[in-house]
């Protein structure tokens, strides 16, 4: 178990209807601001607002990120990244001449709470200023799910010891950077109608125009007041200063700040878009009106659609709501030109790039819960085909070689070349993933197939899916290398899912997934020849598929696929089983990941039997029907002790496999560790942003692992195996257009078919048919 720090989070403040919906930071620690800045991020898929405070602090990391707005700073070692847009949150408050700052004076009480159900962030502070005056301050904010462009704040200030004269500065601050890199050119700033501030900016190389608006309204005694004010403009900054607001003891003043963000990526109407956005922004309502619309959107569009109920463990119930909250908030469901970054929209980590994380860990949530969004995420990959073709050509391969990190549709590879320091040499280490971690092409094909199996969406396959599978299979056949001595094809010099093993030959996951990809291409090609030649014809003309159909069969027949040895162990690669074995106890118990590299460099770790994350084991999970339980157990017993779980992706896979093997206690432990990656007490774990794919893995652990939902050989199978501490698990899934409600206990599982057509599936090992609008109960004992 990972050692944890003392927690500053309370998960039990919510009572009655708010039970298991609230996460509260109970202590303000200025040296650890990143924890709740990340996990309390507010988002709607269009933008994500990191949860920095209104007032500024030295250790903070402020961030507002808009999906799909990548920019590249000039320089050989620079890559495209999601730029940190102008800060809309900043509000400077002066109380009787003293700046409100929690690092000054005394904090008498403090709570910062994320309400998951209505996606509102509330901060309650009682503060004593250096001059001895006490104040109560309430800060509220949300990023609207009902209107993707709007961010709203509400600040209420109450003097408690004496009356107060309050001054406030607030506006739009474009003086932000991505860790020092400024991605925006200066643009127009102005004030409209004496109340709406506007600032325009444009990204330096991608030339995306941003327009930011904000307006302020003050309320006292439930009436709007007009404080004395003056406008200021500075470089990349526009703000209002409101002066001499007098507030009596135990009375309050409220500031409502409504902000809007629009970009030229949104436009449909040419040059008129700026005028239209101004009009739309000025017509937006006040805080309460906008909040009511926002709250209703979360209720109807999220919590009614994705209800997962865990009875018997309050923290687990909270954890899955936290996961779903972020999965919705970070996913650009509105636009297939965009995808999900490895940190969602919660921080600068991984520069907003999309990885295999999406297809293997996040897309399944949407396939089973909101298939139309899963389709858009896969359409994004199809739209990036030109970039994948470009990368293949640059590496002298055919077909589509998808980039390890992806940003713009046609850009190709955007993985940085250099990373952290080498503890031995003192040099920057090369990030080889962008060069040789190539399994992502098969992962995208797998997700495409998985989506089709669950949805039966022929339109998607005809337009996008078949081409994704064919083009990646073309890449793989060109990637195979002939070994004359052994008379077989191999895949050499790669990085598999275990990124602690670089430049290995015949990584089992890569070889098997490449072969799977090729076999699916053969299957679908032959099916289209027979049943739908009209769909095949344009693909045939573009890709010369008949030529590759022969090569797929000839080469895959001779492709080396690592098989279990006498002990049942599948070698992770050609040399893994011969490497040195060391005691990993110290590193498994470390509070932070990566402590291994305080002693060894990656070259040394490359020569040891140390695995970063599930590698062979994720192969056994994704291609589960190819392996017996005996093989799965033998590989679990061998590889899990050698796995440090230094990737947030690892524990969910181990949880699901343990559940499949009937190892309830181990599955439960892995699940506990997975949900604490972001929610746990480790205070530095989330500084760069939330672990987006881990949240998808949490959902998979519950639905695929404990819920036992799986698609095997084209059929749906449900075999629940819930933890002993859970009394009941309830959730919904979609299967080929039908909605199924599932309620599992230790003894039985109830399945209700909410659709108008009968559904055939397997419960445990028995095939059953559930009639429309009926619920059927099946015994599990």
Automatic annotation (TrEMBL):
<feature type="domain" description="Glycoside hydrolase family 65 central catalytic">
    <location>
        <begin position="321"/>
        <end position="700"/>
    </location>
</feature>
<dbReference type="GO" id="GO:0004553">
    <property type="term" value="F:hydrolase activity, hydrolyzing O-glycosyl compounds"/>
</dbReference>
<dbReference type="GO" id="GO:0016757">
    <property type="term" value="F:glycosyltransferase activity"/>
</dbReference>
<dbReference type="InterPro" id="IPR037018">
    <property type="entry name" value="GH65_N"/>
</dbReference>
<dbReference type="GO" id="GO:0005975">
    <property type="term" value="P:carbohydrate metabolic process"/>
</dbReference>
<feature type="binding site">
    <location>
        <begin position="612"/>
        <end position="613"/>
    </location>
    <ligand>
        <name>substrate</name>
    </ligand>
</feature>
<feature type="binding site">
    <location>
        <begin position="356"/>
        <end position="357"/>
    </location>
    <ligand>
        <name>substrate</name>
    </ligand>
</feature>
<protein>
    <submittedName>
        <fullName>Glycoside hydrolase family 65 protein</fullName>
    </submittedName>
</protein>
<comment type="similarity">
    <text>Belongs to the glycosyl hydrolase 65 family.</text>
</comment>
<dbReference type="InterPro" id="IPR011013">
    <property type="entry name" value="Gal_mutarotase_sf_dom"/>
</dbReference>
<feature type="domain" description="Glycoside hydrolase family 65 N-terminal">
    <location>
        <begin position="24"/>
        <end position="265"/>
    </location>
</feature>
<dbReference type="InterPro" id="IPR005195">
    <property type="entry name" value="Glyco_hydro_65_M"/>
</dbReference>
<dbReference type="GO" id="GO:0030246">
    <property type="term" value="F:carbohydrate binding"/>
</dbReference>
<dbReference type="InterPro" id="IPR005194">
    <property type="entry name" value="Glyco_hydro_65_C"/>
</dbReference>
<keyword id="KW-0328">Glycosyltransferase</keyword>
<dbReference type="InterPro" id="IPR005196">
    <property type="entry name" value="Glyco_hydro_65_N"/>
</dbReference>
<keyword id="KW-0378">Hydrolase</keyword>
<keyword id="KW-0808">Transferase</keyword>
<dbReference type="Pfam" id="PF03632">
    <property type="entry name" value="Glyco_hydro_65m"/>
</dbReference>
<dbReference type="InterPro" id="IPR017045">
    <property type="entry name" value="Malt_Pase/Glycosyl_Hdrlase"/>
</dbReference>
<feature type="domain" description="Glycoside hydrolase family 65 C-terminal">
    <location>
        <begin position="710"/>
        <end position="769"/>
    </location>
</feature>
<feature type="active site" description="Proton donor">
    <location>
        <position position="499"/>
    </location>
</feature>
<dbReference type="Pfam" id="PF03633">
    <property type="entry name" value="Glyco_hydro_65C"/>
</dbReference>
<dbReference type="Pfam" id="PF03636">
    <property type="entry name" value="Glyco_hydro_65N"/>
</dbReference>
<dbReference type="InterPro" id="IPR008928">
    <property type="entry name" value="6-hairpin_glycosidase_sf"/>
</dbReference>
<dbReference type="InterPro" id="IPR012341">
    <property type="entry name" value="6hp_glycosidase-like_sf"/>
</dbReference>
């Amino acid at each position: 178990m990972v050692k944890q720090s003392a927690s500053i989070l309370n998960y039990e403040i919510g009572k009655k209807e708010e039970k298991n919906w609230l996460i509260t930071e109970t202590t303000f620690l200025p040296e650890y601001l990143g924890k709740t800045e990340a996990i309390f991020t507010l988002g709607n898929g269009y933008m994500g607002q990191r949860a920095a405070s209104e007032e500024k602090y030295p250790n903070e990391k402020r961030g507002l990120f808009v999906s799909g707005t990548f920019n590249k700073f000039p320089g050989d070692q620079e890559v495209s990244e999601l730029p940190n847009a102008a800060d809309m949150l900043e509000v400077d408050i002066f109380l009787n001449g003293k700046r409100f700052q929690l690092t000054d004076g005394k904090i008498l009480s403090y709570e910062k709470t994320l309400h998951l159900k209505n996606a509102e962030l509330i901060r309650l502070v009682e503060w004593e200023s250096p001059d001895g005056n006490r104040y109560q301050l309430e800060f509220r904010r949300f990023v609207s799910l009902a209107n993707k462009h709007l961010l709203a704040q509400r600040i209420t200030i109450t003097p408690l010891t004496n009356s107060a004269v309050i001054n406030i500065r607030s506006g739009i601050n474009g003086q932000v950077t991505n860790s020092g890199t400024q991605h925006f050119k200066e643009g127009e700033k102005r004030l409209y109608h004496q109340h709406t501030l506007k600032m325009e900016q444009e990204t330096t190389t991608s030339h995306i125009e941003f327009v930011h608006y904000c307006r302020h309204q003050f309320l006292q005694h439930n009436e709007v007041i007009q404080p004395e004010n003056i406008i200021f403009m500075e470089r990349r900054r526009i703000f209002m200063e409101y002066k001499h607001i007098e507030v009596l003891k135990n009375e309050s003043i409220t500031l409502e700040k409504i902000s809007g963000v629009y970009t030229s990526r949104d436009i449909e109407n040419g040059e008129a878009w700026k005028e239209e956005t101004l009009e739309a922004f000025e017509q937006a309502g006040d805080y309460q009106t906008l909040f009511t619309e926002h709250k209703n959107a979360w209720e109807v569009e999220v919590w009614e659609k994705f209800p997962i109920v865990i009875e018997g463990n309050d923290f687990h119930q909270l954890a899955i709501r936290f996961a779903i909250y972020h999965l919705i908030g970070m996913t650009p469901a509105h636009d297939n030109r965009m995808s999900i970054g490895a940190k969602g929209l919660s921080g600068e980590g991984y520069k907003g790039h999309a990885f295999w994380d999406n297809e293997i860990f996040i897309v399944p949530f949407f396939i089973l819960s909101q298939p139309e969004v899963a389709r858009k995420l896969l359409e994004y990959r199809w739209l990036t085909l030109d970039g994948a073709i470009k990368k293949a050509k640059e590496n002298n391969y055919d077909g589509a070689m998808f980039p390890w990190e992806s940003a713009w549709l046609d850009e190709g590879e955007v993985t940085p070349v250099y990373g952290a320091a080498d503890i031995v040499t003192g040099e920057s280490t090369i990030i080889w993933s962008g060069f040789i971690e190539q399994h992502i092409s098969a992962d995208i094909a797998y997700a495409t197939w998985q989506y089709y199996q669950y949805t039966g969406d022929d339109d998607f396959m005809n337009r996008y899916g078949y081409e994704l599978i064919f083009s990646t299979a073309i890449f793989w056949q060109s990637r195979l290398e002939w070994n004359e001595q052994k008379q077989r094809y191999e895949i050499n010099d790669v990085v598999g899912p275990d990124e602690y093993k670089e430049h290995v030959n015949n990584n089992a996951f890569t070889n098997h997934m490449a072969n799977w990809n090729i076999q699916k291409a053969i299957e679908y090609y032959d099916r289209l020849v027979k049943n739908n030649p009209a769909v095949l014809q344009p693909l045939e003309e573009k890709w010369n598929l008949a030529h590759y159909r022969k090569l797929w069969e000839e080469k895959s027949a001779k492709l080396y696929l690592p098989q279990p040895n006498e002990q049942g162990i599948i070698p992770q690669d050609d040399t893994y089983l011969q490497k040195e074995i060391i005691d990993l106890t110290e590193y498994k118990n470390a509070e932070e990941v990566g402590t291994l590299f305080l002693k060894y460099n990656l070259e040394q770790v490359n020569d040891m039997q140390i695995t970063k994350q599930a590698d062979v084991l994720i192969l056994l999970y994704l291609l589960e029907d190819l392996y017996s339980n005996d093989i799965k157990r033998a590989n679990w017993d061998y590889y899990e002790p050698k796995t440090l779980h230094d990737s947030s992706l690892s524990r969910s896979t181990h949880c699901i496999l343990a559940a499949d093997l009937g190892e309830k206690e181990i599955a439960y432990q892995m699940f506990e560790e997975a949900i604490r990656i972001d929610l746990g007490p480790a205070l530095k774990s989330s500084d760069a942003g939330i672990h987006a794919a881990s949240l998808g893995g949490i959902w998979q652990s519950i639905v695929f692992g404990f819920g036992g939902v799986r698609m095997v050989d084209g059929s749906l199978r449900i075999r629940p195996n819930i933890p002993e501490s859970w009394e009941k698990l309830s959730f919904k899934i979609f299967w080929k257009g039908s909605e199924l409600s599932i309620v599992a206990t230790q003894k039985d599982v109830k399945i209700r078919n909410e659709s108008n057509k009968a559904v055939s599936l397997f419960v445990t090992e028995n095939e059953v048919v559930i009639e429309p609008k009926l619920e059927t109960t099946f015994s599990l004992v």
